[in-house]
Design goal:
The protein is an all-alpha fold and about 150 residues long. The chain contains three helices and no strands. The mean pLDDT is about 80.
Amino acid sequence: MSNINPEAGGFGQPAPQQPPGYGYPQQPGPGYGYSQPGPSYPAAPPAAYPQMPGYGMPMQPSNGMGTTGLVLGIIGVVCSLTIAMEILGMILGILAIIFGAIGRGKANRGEATNRGAATAGLVCGIIATVLLPLLVFLFFASMFSAGTF
């Protein structure tokens, strides 16, 4: 006959075993900060380990030149409208043309995503540098020719 509830080392049916990872562990593990026995995550690769192609983060677009051109162009237009600050407006307009052209070049190469801001900065720079001083000059020339000034 078979003994269903044997003592240690006896015969009978084996006790059911749970698969590892389910329920509570059979033996309590060490406290916090101690390593657990068994498999663990692989160690990080060394710092000089070369990256495989396609695993790095894509380069972020640099939109600074186009935005700078737009801001300088707007300030240049406002300063060119003020007769006392027309020279400053022309200088800012020249800088806006330079930054706007560089920003458009970056946008054409795909290094930047703000082609519209760079174009607007270029246009505002041209207006601040050429058009508004020309209009002010024509206004004063007409005033002198009419003799009212």
